[in-house]
Amino acid sequence: MTTDATRLASSDDRLTADAARLAPLDDQLAADFYLYEALLSDEERKILLKARTLMRDEIKPLVNEYWGRGEFPMELIEKFRGSGLAALAYEGYGEHQPAISHLLGGMLAMELSRVDASVATFFGVHNGLAFYSIHYGGDQEQRDRWLPAMASMDKIGAFALTEPLGGSDVSGGMRTTARREGDTWVLNGAKKWIGNATFADYVVVFARDVDDNKVKGFVVEKGTPGFTPVKIEGKVALRIVQNAEITLTDVRVSEADRLHNIKGFRDVAEVLRVTRGGVAWQALGVMIGAYELALDYAKERMAFGRPIARFQMVQDLLVKSLGNITASWGMLIQLARLQDQGIFRDEQSALAKEFVAARMRESVAWSREIFGGNGIVLDYDVARFFADSEALYSYEGTHQMQTLIVGKSITGHSAFVG
């Protein structure tokens, strides 16, 4: 009896502690209906709130002007540099494990996207794709040479995989080639849709070795002869992101600048497996940002003498959006736990990207609908989220490619063509 009473008392204490942690938090998001942020430690939440303050006070006032002009605010780099957020991916590396949990990393990606998807994409390309390619694909000397400057954002990175004639099929049809000449590699070909490439200091370029037909990775520095990035004009989404089409004409790269642990496309796929979950978190952030705008607008916008938030059909759209947000957030939290335990699989990242991006697409459309005609005007912000959601739906693997990855896993049969 005494043992049972002690056990019950201990259980009650845990429940009381959990209830306290799950109480409403300061600066809690309206979209956090199930109090997911309370799963972060106090220290982690301080970091998240630091990012929230930065995005709200320093970044948000810039985005509409630059999005409308299709330009990148270079002062944004200095603002991130001063925040120390990029360094979180580097400080504390032991066996090259991130200093922060995947849960906090995901929520930071969400927080950036909640204000602007272009800014989150810039950060994700630099801090995710480029940084992780070097951390995973480079040897210790290469990590020590490149990563500290990237962590401080004194140097900016880009990731060049997609080609003008190859997107989802680039793994088997990469046309960019690498030919070895002694201690030098000669790269020829083209890449397209490469974020940050117009101004990046280090561009991770993947090319097919003509001798063994294996994909290899190279770090090409800005200004290397034969390396020509040209900005892609006329985009209707992610307009702040400076995407480029890159032409490589006899670009000579030292063997010391070849990522020595990239030995085939399987290693490139490992980078994508890890970063794909980050894109799902970005999609969640876009969904939340649009929902928050629509919720505030519904409370303020008057029609027929009352706020439109009192109309049943408006509430229906808001509740469906909140349901999508809550379900997506729960999925991503479990994915982050699996990542932190080192047991997550490619198909789990693929399902998260497929599901959350699809929910984002429909939820952002519902949010835009609540604005009526004002929903297509940049002044109200939601039009930017609406346009940007289309890009997130497609990049880092299209919706259909994700379903094929998951479909193969659950059926045991590959439906890939070719």
TrEMBL record:
<feature type="domain" description="Acyl-CoA dehydrogenase/oxidase C-terminal">
    <location>
        <begin position="263"/>
        <end position="410"/>
    </location>
</feature>
<dbReference type="InterPro" id="IPR013786">
    <property type="entry name" value="AcylCoA_DH/ox_N"/>
</dbReference>
<keyword id="KW-0285">Flavoprotein</keyword>
<dbReference type="InterPro" id="IPR006089">
    <property type="entry name" value="Acyl-CoA_DH_CS"/>
</dbReference>
<feature type="domain" description="Acyl-CoA dehydrogenase/oxidase N-terminal">
    <location>
        <begin position="41"/>
        <end position="153"/>
    </location>
</feature>
<comment type="similarity">
    <text>Belongs to the acyl-CoA dehydrogenase family.</text>
</comment>
<dbReference type="InterPro" id="IPR009075">
    <property type="entry name" value="AcylCo_DH/oxidase_C"/>
</dbReference>
<feature type="domain" description="Acyl-CoA oxidase/dehydrogenase middle">
    <location>
        <begin position="158"/>
        <end position="251"/>
    </location>
</feature>
<dbReference type="Pfam" id="PF02771">
    <property type="entry name" value="Acyl-CoA_dh_N"/>
</dbReference>
<dbReference type="InterPro" id="IPR046373">
    <property type="entry name" value="Acyl-CoA_Oxase/DH_mid-dom_sf"/>
</dbReference>
<protein>
    <submittedName>
        <fullName>Acyl-CoA dehydrogenase family protein</fullName>
    </submittedName>
</protein>
<dbReference type="InterPro" id="IPR006091">
    <property type="entry name" value="Acyl-CoA_Oxase/DH_mid-dom"/>
</dbReference>
<keyword id="KW-0560">Oxidoreductase</keyword>
<dbReference type="InterPro" id="IPR037069">
    <property type="entry name" value="AcylCoA_DH/ox_N_sf"/>
</dbReference>
<dbReference type="InterPro" id="IPR009100">
    <property type="entry name" value="AcylCoA_DH/oxidase_NM_dom_sf"/>
</dbReference>
<dbReference type="Pfam" id="PF02770">
    <property type="entry name" value="Acyl-CoA_dh_M"/>
</dbReference>
<keyword id="KW-0274">FAD</keyword>
<dbReference type="InterPro" id="IPR045008">
    <property type="entry name" value="ACX4-like"/>
</dbReference>
<dbReference type="Pfam" id="PF00441">
    <property type="entry name" value="Acyl-CoA_dh_1"/>
</dbReference>
<dbReference type="InterPro" id="IPR036250">
    <property type="entry name" value="AcylCo_DH-like_C"/>
</dbReference>
